[in-house]
Amino acid sequence: MNSFRAFLKRKDIVFSIKRYGIDALGAMAQGLFCSLLIGTIIRTIGAQSGISLLTDIGTYAMAVSGPAMAVAIGYALKAPQMVLFSLAAVGWAANAEGGAGGPLAVLLIAIVAGEFGKAVSKETKVDLLVTPAVTILIGVALAKLIAPPIGSAASAFGLMIDQATKLQPFWMGICVSVLVGIALTLPISSAAICSVLQLTGLAGGAAVAGCCAQMVGFAVMSFRENRWGGLVSQGIGTSMLQMPNIIRNPRIWIPPILCSAITGPIATCLFHLEMNGAPINSGMGTCGLCGQIGVLTGWVAPGAEAAARGAVAITPAVFDWMGLILVSFVLPAVLCPVFAALCRILGWIQDGDMKLA
User: Fold this and answer.
1) Of 343, 196, 188, 207, which is closest to residue 264 (Cα–Cα)?
2) pLDDT tens across 104-142, in order?
């Protein structure tokens, strides 16, 4: 047993929630962002402007989302170069075989294939053959074997959330908004979670609302401590910057959570806000305005996942624009400071509690 533990340590194989649930998941979201998400945006711009070159560029970027996710996961696992490069084939196979649940299949299979590849890396004199062969054989075999059921399960769960939100838009609007918003601020990837669960439609709209409540909320209510730099870094960057402060004083999280519990059902029940772009956008909030871009993209050209659930292109009315702006920016910027002021009166939040390092 001690020799096995020593082997794992030498190979930097760490079985932990942080390595797989935070590092790998977060890296996967970055890989997805740098392929599917940016490709979707470029292709949509090309389609709407009539510039075929942009359409082609976007299509090529979207096509390599599987390899991009797998390589990003391998990077997070600190895989050697031979393993890292071999994961491109694994990612392509897992994403293709996983269908609508491709991102979840890529996450699980790339982790297994990457760790096996790390285990055999540089253990033989024919490493040039053994390492990529083991990584690809195990990864692609798993893709053929388990990716389809993983994809079906993820798609079914996402569909269940979508249908539940349609049937109970108020309560599900609260649940989805609060939970995805919390995930965005935690050191995990809300974008990857939304992509894995294929959150689109009303559920996607609630997720956007929750993420915006956290990002815009923290940015505005901590303005006295962080000024303009903090407003930008949190408002269009990430509210995850507040995690050290949340650990020191969890009560600073109350205002954005309460805000998301309000803006979620407003998005689903009042404005019927749907996010029908790429599912990853549902978990992005105002980060680079990707959540809003996803909504706009879904209006003019619904993504494959949303289209499969009946989404169609629309011409947005003034009411639609009003809902997007209010839910994304105005309401979080108003509600969070009000809730924060109440918390300050109660003595739950003190000056400097939200100061960024």
Assistant:
1) 207
2) 899 999 999 999 999 999 999 899 999 999 999 999 999
